[in-house]
Amino acid sequence: MYQAILLTFTPYFNSMKFDEYRIADGIKTSISKLGYKKPTDIQYKSIPPILKGEDVLAIAQTGTGKTAAFAIPILHLLQDRKIPGRRDGVKCLVMAPTHELALQIDSVFKTLGKHTRINTFCIHGGVDQEPQIKQLDKGVDVLIATPGRMFDLVSQGALLLRRVEILVLDEADHMLDLGFIKDIRDLMRHLPNKRQTLFFSATINDQIKKIAYSLVSDKAIRIQISPKDPVAKNIEHAVAFVEMDDKRFFLEEMIKNNPGQKILVFVRTKVRAERVKKAMTRVDIVTNTIHSDIDQKERERTMSDFRHGGLKILIATDVSARGIDIPNVDFVVNYDLPETSENYVHRVGRTGRGTQKGQAVSFCSTEEKEQLAEIENNLGKPIQRIDITKKDYQETLDFSDSNPSDWQSLMNEAEESESRRPQAGAKKKKKSKKKKSKSRK
């Protein structure tokens, strides 16, 4: 039977300082430059066992510093073991579910490892693989990868994993959501049996437990940061009851009442993302979208613009923005309610990162009330309500620079044109078939 050592940990004030850890001076220098003096709860509990070479299964809220919790001890271990002038293959493999998260982890490793001899590199799809292969040939200590590109390079013989000493699975719950479980199991065939495995996830369920226990040793340390409220205490979150066709008017009012604020808007699908963008453009609000249909380089540019403040309003789907650490997000707007409470926690956790304060508001239509009830049931408490009187509701519609009825007619026209497209295509095919039959005659 599996007998992990369980450390369920309710956050409390700890007096430990980074200066007191037995880690390389170069890493301490980087931490100091970032202005961090004390570890977060997940860092406080994770760093010591990882430094000891133990397997770790860690469950903690988003925005609690999980990436640094494994990056700091890994950098120290590899720095301590590294032999100058010797290229020894990839020593640490970090698996991430999305391009954006992989690039973010890469940035954390490079920032923290700036004053060490550790080489960190990130590979992901959507870009040319040749430069990635060349960099791998030069030598890489820490490799951050998405499953698709990693297996492409492994199958070509361009990436060898037989010298990996540490495996990290980050945002493991999201990997399962995206259907990467087979990839994770296939990965094990390419790795040494003797290795340290670190499993990090924001949520835990029976399926995740089963997979985690099959990957880590039977003496793994399980760390679970268990606050009473899964939403971080520095995030104020509430729900407003707004009908589906009226949501864009409430979003417009919110944006215009908070000029210059950084706002992250979550929608259900990529089609919805583009529609909301067009609706905001119609009322002179500059936004951009991030979802799987957008070219990787364009996604990176958009994320960079939003991260550095050039773009103030970003509209995103769950898949594209999960796990992304964007500083100083003032508001998260759940334009569409998420399907699960786990996704709710992940979404609102994009604001109020670390010690910052954050605010999140969800628009709930009549048809989404069942989803809201399920989310609240899993959170274990009701979400605060924003009371909107009939007068205030109507004033919000009147506030809009876009006439609701005009907007609705435009949307109806757009939907009708979309529904006609396949039929037009079918007619073309029929015509081409007729031409072919005539030519045969």
Report on the architecture of this protein.
This protein is an alpha/beta fold and 441 residues long. 45% of the residues lie in helices and 15% in strands. Strand 4 (120-123), helix 5 (130-138) and strand 5 (142-145) form a beta-alpha-beta unit. Residues 1-13 and 420-441 have low confidence and may be disordered.
Identify the notable features of this structure and list them briefly.
441 residues; 2 domains; Rossmann fold; alpha/beta; seven-stranded parallel sheet; eight-stranded parallel sheet; single chain; disordered C terminus; 15 strands
Write the layout of secondary structure elements.
Blueprint: E1 5-9, H1 25-33, H2 41-51, E2 56-59, H3 66-81, E3 92-95, H4 99-112, E4 120-123, H5 130-138, E5 142-145, H6 147-155, E6 166-169, H7 172-177, H8 181-188, E7 196-201, H9 206-215, E8 221-225, E9 235-241, H10 247-257, E10 263-266, H11 270-282, E11 288-290, H12 296-308, E12 313-316, H13 318-321, E13 331-334, H14 341-348, E14 358-364, H15 369-379, E15 384-386, H16 390-399, H17 404-440
Parallel strand pairs: 1-8, 2-7, 2-8, 3-5, 3-6, 4-5, 6-7, 9-14, 9-15, 10-12, 10-13, 11-12, 13-14
Helix pairs in contact: 2-3, 3-4
Short description:
It contains 17 helices and 15 strands. It is α/β, with parallel strands linked by helices.
